[in-house]
Specification:
Blueprint: E1 15-21, H1 27-38, E2 43-46, E3 54-61, E4 75-84, E5 86-88, E6 97-100, H2 108-117, E7 120-124, E8 133-134, E9 137-138, H3 139-144, E10 154-169, E11 173-183, H4 188-199, E12 203-213, E13 216-217, H5 224-229, E14 235-236, H6 237-246, H7 248-251, E15 292-295, E16 298-301, E17 308-311, H8 317-331, H9 341-345, E18 350-358, E19 361-369, E20 371-372, E21 375-376, E22 381-389, H10 398-413, E23 416-422, H11 426-434, E24 438-444, E25 456-462
Parallel strand pairs: 3-12, 22-23
Antiparallel strand pairs: 1-3, 1-14, 2-3, 4-11, 4-12, 5-6, 7-10, 8-9, 10-11, 12-13, 15-16, 16-17, 17-18, 18-19, 19-22, 20-21, 23-25, 24-25
């Protein structure tokens, strides 16, 4: 370690650090370097960048690691270069070429037509070399072990996909410089792959730079070299909270209204945003006031998108699995992806379930269960389980609305509600206590995080 990389003397104040990641290192490498430079183990990052990518990486330092999951970080912007004329096994320039074709005859009009089909609300198959878990293992690990991985399409939003420049390259290739703005969970490599495939010539990503995550842009960012010269955070915890929360209206991200509870952890696995979860209730719950209103047969939130909460029917299960997959990608919940997610959602122990629906798409879910922590609930009680909200639908009080449905059902059935929540899920705990839930006790969980640690779970009940 060079002299300039020695840990800073004394403690660094809590806050948000925006790093301009260089190419060739992982997001976890950045975290490790920052831990040394800032002389603290308490550093975590929100979202990952591929090693080849550069640009904005948002980190939390000290107490601000708990803040990352509360910020409006669900929209992202990128500048990228797509090469038409070759498809690779990783959908980027680091993979082996699978097919090639002369792309020089592809017209600008043809490119524009396909780009239009890849813009808006689309179903995207994630890149196989990704951090998505398949039967408990990362997809990229399975691919590198020689296994074939087939990932299901997932709903994403590409709000902007603009071709800025075209360059014809010797060898029959065409390079496109593009700008993309999209929801969390969108793979730019997949856009490159799909554009090339639909044009019939193949395509892959050759360069990627993230220019914005939520409200944080390259203007906020510091290189690791800059940080070595002058260790410190970009924004103190109060300013980071103010900027992150106020940006939700501008960028469509989540705000105080609907937050994941077990937030970014300094010791989590690469690719996890909000830490590990058990197979029980997901703590993507609101830490603030969520307004709801009744109409028709459903409950709609006060948001203009009119998210309706209604009882789940069999036809909702595919949509529930799609939403759960996005939550798993974003937050790591469930801790281990179930082999049969349809069966997991409709377990025989599930007594009743509700969904949040927006524009005909499932964006949230909650159930009541006859078991808690793997054991039957006591007489006269029932457990809240499988509570999750799509990352793109947080910030409109949907968690509150889903819990309202559960509470109404319990009141009508004269049942006491119980639930378990990990003890570091502070926003979720704040929500439950605000809603009148009462702390009962706590114990080591009967499941482990991916780092092998058994977290502590608190038991809460909602009296009749």
């Amino acid at each position: 370690m060079s002299a300039r990389e020695k840990p800073s003397s004394g403690l660094v104040g809590a806050g948000i650090l925006i790093v301009d990641k260089e190419a060739g290192i992982t997001s976890h490498d950045v975290v490790a370097r920052c831990r040394k430079l800032l002389n603290t183990r308490k550093v975590g990052h929100a979202g990952t960048l591929d090693p080849m990518a550069t640009g904005v990486l948002v980190l939390g330092v000290e107490r601000a690691t708990k803040l990352l999951g509360l910020l409006a970080l669900t929209t992202k912007a990128y500048s990228a270069t797509i090469r038409l004329g070759a498809a690779t096994d990783t959908d980027d320039a680091e993979g082996e070429v699978l097919t090639s074709a002369d792309a020089s005859q592809v017209t600008d009009a043809e490119i524009a037509a396909i780009v239009a089909t890849l813009t808006g609300d689309i179903k995207q198959i994630p890149a196989s070399v990704s951090a998505i878990k398949v039967d408990g293992q990362r997809a990229h690990a399975l691919v590198r072990a020689g296994e074939t991985v087939e990932l299901a399409p997932r709903p994403v939003t590409v709000s902007t996909f603009e071709v800025l420049a075209r360059r014809d390259v010797p060898g029959g290739f065409v390079d496109l410089d593009v700008d993309v703005e999209c929801s969390s969970g969108t793979y730019i490599r997949s856009l490159a792959r799909d554009l090339g495939r639909e044009l019939g010539v193949g395509g892959h990503l050759t360069a990627l730079r993230r220019t914005r995550v939520g409200p944080f842009t390259l203007e906020h960012a510091r290189t690791l070299e800059d940080l070595a010269d002058q260790p410190g955070v970009s924004l103190d915890i109060d300013q980071g909270r103010a900027d992150g929360f106020s940006a939700s209206a501008d960028h469509g991200g989540r705000s105080r209204g609907d937050q994941p509870g077990a937030l970014a952890r300094a010791d989590r696995d690469e690719g996890d945003l909000c830490g590990d979860r058990s197979h029980r209730s997901h703590d993507c719950a609101s830490a603030g006031e969520g307004s709801t209103r009744q109409f028709g047969d459903g409950r709609a939130t006060g948001d203009a998108s009119r998210v309706i909460v209604r009882e789940r029917v069999d036809g909702d299960l595919d949509g529930c699995v799609d939403a759960l997959a996005q939550v798993h990608e974003c937050d790591g919940y469930p801790n281990t992806w179930p082999q049969n997610p349809h069966r997991w959602l409709s377990s025989p122990t599930v007594v009743k379930a509700w969904v949040g629906e927006s524009d005909g798409r499932v964006v949230g879910h909650v159930a009541v269960d006859s078991e808690v922590a793997g054991a039957p609930t006591t007489a006269g009680s029932i457990a809240v389980s499988r509570l999750f909200v799509h990352p793109g639908s947080r910030g409109n009080g949907l968690s509150d609305a889903l819990l309202d449905a559960v509470t109404d059902f319990a009141a009508e059935s004269r049942l006491e509600l119980v639930l378990d929540v990990v003890d570091d899920a502070l926003p979720a705990i704040a929500l439950y206590e605000r809603r009148g839930w009462v702390y009962v006790d706590e114990r080591l969980a009967d499941w482990t995080r991916t780092d092998g640690v058994r977290p502590v779970e608190r038991r809460y009940r909602l009296p009749l």
